[in-house]
Design a protein that fits this description.
three-stranded antiparallel beta sheet, globular, 396 residues, Rossmann fold, 20% strand, alpha/beta
């Protein structure tokens, strides 16, 4: 029998367990269920002896052998380098099904290298990476743009990536990435860099497997394309590891944060906004490499100044993105209102009083456009509230 006796476990101010008690009897099959971040994986790790409760105890019989199968991916004391000192060393991480992990840190810290290792493109110089038996891994990097067949149409590119996909579904995935109508008949060779990036992402998401490795997926994308990609990842039920400098995109997608800096790393079970908040509130320290002091002195001041500058840049970029999205939403609402006004003129025109088919179709179209205008108005209000909050917390 495994006995869980009054355990407590916190992460910063967040209480995962408070006086938790349970018993798992021989031959019992116990399922741990609950939302992301509620402590399911932490409890499993404590039972396996990979983590300890803050108080209380977990009693496991000495004769009991526990096997732990990582659901998706396990990185075990992995190191990587290119002939010289390792880019990172001793990195250990368990990625569970459904996790969306944002990998952040300065350039050169090894973020892209880690993704390439997880994709099997390069081998770790030490340690190992294990994937679950059912893991189907898809990797997106900038090299994929060069691998597009310039003579294939957009439609054929998606069809080749997902041979079993129905024609209507191919049109839908192209539409999701802003290719509509006759765009499907264009060849990849005539596309711009941004369009190629959208097509490459569409081909990945047409058959995404259950583990996505995305290296700077928002490069070359405009704001609307970034939003479409964030929406697609929000509905993706699999696991994703994402390297990106786009703060807005990561805030929309990530449920876990892995920060890598030279000589060190940290894994945080929460969103990017939560991670920033924990650092600002002092629950966890700013992550620093071996040459970066945690406290006083000129070097520490420079590090804090650099961190504050980075945060100001990120805040400024978030403000610009919100302002652009607000302007775009306003323009879309105005265009819809003009279309609705024109449709109402058609309905009010006495010459159409007895054309019941025209009136019916016009009223149906008007209703659809009005519903879309209402939705966009609500979205405008949400964006404006988000911008007001950002401005109040970070005065320009």
């Amino acid at each position: 029998m495994i006995v869980i006796n009054s355990i407590e476990k916190k992460f910063g101010p967040k209480v995962l367990f408070d006086g938790c008690c349970a018993a798992i009897n021989p031959r019992h099959r116990t399922a741990l269920v609950g939302p992301n971040g509620s402590g399911k994986t932490m409890l499993a790790r404590m039972i396996c002896g990979q983590a300890s409760p803050d108080s209380g105890a977990i009693a496991v019989p000495a004769s009991l052998h526990i096997a732990h199968l990582a659901q998706e991916m396990a990185i075990e004391a992995a190191s990587a380098g290119y002939g010289g000192p390792p880019v990172f060393a001793g990195l250990t991480l368990s990625v569970n099904r459904g996790d969306k992990v944002a990998i952040i840190g300065p350039n050169g810290a090894g973020k892209s290298t880690l993704l390439r290792m997880c994709a099997g493109l390069i081998a770790p110089s030490a340690g190992r990476i294990r994937t679950g038996g059912n893991a189907i891994v898809r990797y997106y990097g900038q090299h994929r743009l060069e691998q597009l067949d310039p003579d294939k149409t957009l439609y054929d590119t998606i069809a080749a990536a997902a041979p079993a996909m129905a024609s209507s579904a191919i049109q839908s995935i192209l539409g999701l990435f802003l290719f509509s109508g006759e765009d499907a008949l264009k060849t990849a060779g005539v596309l711009s860099g941004g369009e190629k990036a959208r097509l490459s992402l569409a081909s990945i998401l047409a058959d995404p497997g259950n583990v996505l490795l995305l290296d700077e997926p928002t490069n070359h994308l405009d704001i609307e394309s970034v939003e479409r990609l964030a929406d697609a990842l929000a509905t993706f039920e699999g696991t994703a590891l994402i390297v990106s400098h786009d703060e807005f995109f990561l805030n929309r997608t990530a449920t876990r944060i892995l920060e890598i800096r030279p000589g060190t790393y940290r894994y945080f079970p929460g969103s990017l906004a939560d991670y920033r908040s924990y650092i600002e509130e002092g629950y966890i320290e700013t992550l620093q490499g071996p040459n970066g002091p945690a406290g006083g002195g000129r070097e520490g001041a420079v590090t804090r100044e650099k961190t504050a500058k980075e945060q100001r840049v990120l805040t400024r970029e978030s403000r610009k993105q919100l302002e652009r999205r607000i302007r775009k939403t306003e323009e879309e609402v105005q265009a819809l209102e003009e279309e609705i006004a024109a449709l109402k003129k058609t309905v009010d025109d006495p010459a159409n009083a007895h054309d019941f088919q025209l009136l019916h179709e016009t009223l149906e179209t008007t209703g659809g456009k009005q519903a879309e205008a209402d939705r966009l108005t609500d979205e405008w209000g949400r964006l404006q509230e988000e911008l007001d909050t950002l401005n109040s917390e970070n005065p320009a």
